[in-house]
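pasting for ref
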Amino acid sequence: MREKLTMAFAIIILAVMIPYLGTIVLTGKVGATTISVAELDSGKTVSLDLNGQYMVLDVEAYLKGVLPTAMEGSENIEMWKTLAIIERTNIYKKMDGMGNIDEEDLGMKYLSEEEIRQLWGEQNYDSYMKKLEQAIIETAGIVLLYDGEYIDALYHKVSVGTTVSAEELFGEEIPYLSAVVSSHDVESKDYMNLVMISKDTVQELIILESTEHGYVKRIKCNGEELTGEEAQERLGLSSLNFYIEDMGEEFRVVCLGKGHGMGLSLYGAGIMAAEGKGYVEILQYYYPGVQLSEKLSL
């Protein structure tokens, strides 16, 4: 009888201990628990006004509302990790050593949960947000550095098949913003965009100067000389890489790529992620020579 009781007691102990021991084996931590984005503490915060309510959020929590503005939601989790590191880097760089910054100084837009639900749709919100939160947690605190300094982590939607270097566009050599091949971008639905401009509003439209690969630097519009960036904004163009065709009663502006073309291409990076590449390989491909910092201690 005593042996049976001893055996039963041993079975009960094992039943209790096996899940506990399994946790240690899988995580390497005793009593490990799941952490949420809201619990992350980077020591850096962003102040913002959200629909009339003043808020101060940790950078990690702030990312949760910022990242959905850049991607559709269905992307591979490695893309969410990639974007989290990019935007975290940009925030830290603009902080310039400070512990807090106002959102208006970042040039970013934080979306509320309700706004994200409207953006993604109720049917997608839970699954998309789960990936986004996991990406933030798994890359918490990681930023991109070059020679020990935060980089300008520029990115765009679609390149023209090759990203443009800072030297070609602005005449300034920045090693991590050099041109890299992103050949799959030409397959994107956003690769080419046509804009028709009536001569009733614009009588003169002439490109004065463009770079080797077609990025417009100077243009004349109705006698006024504009920079490529000014023309892009005024004419509502999707890219700085464009050419103009005179169609008689109107001008046809053919835009290639989407965005400024420097740094990381979201489309090209998405292809790399779909092929099984991780965020480290993706980032170090599009930003040659960068290092990734240590992860935040959770």
